[in-house]
Design brief:
The protein has 138 residues and is of the alpha+beta class. Helix content is 19%, strand content 28%. The mean pLDDT is 94.
Length: 138
């Protein structure tokens, strides 16, 4: 699973998810991509599932760029624990995704195959996405 090697603070507050993404709005590396149209938390498990789906469905000549990294810790208290006694331990890591962010990019495949493969990958994500290509950004 993806996670940071070191962080300045072990635990974070949840924060808000309003507005649009500040960065990663355009295609930087590949020819085709998947762009978020909604907001949410994408966990390290979701990212790994997308990466596995893409690498299994594509041929050897294709290149994949995953433009997400889970850098936000999510804590959880054990089941059947009474209230109080501090915040729980870090359970998993997530990436906050806002609308407009490019999540995955592909290169080295045809348009039809890219659409189908990215459709399969989109089913692994907990947020709504759309297919984008480099021509759409001009």
């Amino acid at each position: 699973m993806l996670m940071p090697k070191r962080v300045k603070y072990r635990k974070q507050q949840r924060g808000t998810m309003k507005g649009f993404s500040k960065g990663n709005l355009k295609m930087s590396f590949g020819q085709y991509g998947l762009q978020a149209t909604g907001m949410g938390w994408v966990s390290a498990r979701h990212i790994e599932a997308v990466r596995l789906t893409l690498s299994r469905a594509l041929k050897q000549g294709s290149k994949i760029w995953v433009r997400l990294f889970p850098d936000k810790p999510v804590t959880k208290k054990p089941a059947e624990t009474r209230m109080g006694k501090g915040k729980g331990d870090v359970d998993h890591w997530v990436c906050v995704v806002k609308p407009g962010r490019v999540i995955v990019e592909l290169e080295g495949t045809s348009l039809e195959i890219a659409k189908e493969v990215l459709r399969l990958a989109a089913h692994k994500l907990p947020i709504p996405t759309k297919f984008v290509s480099r021509e759409m950004f001009g």
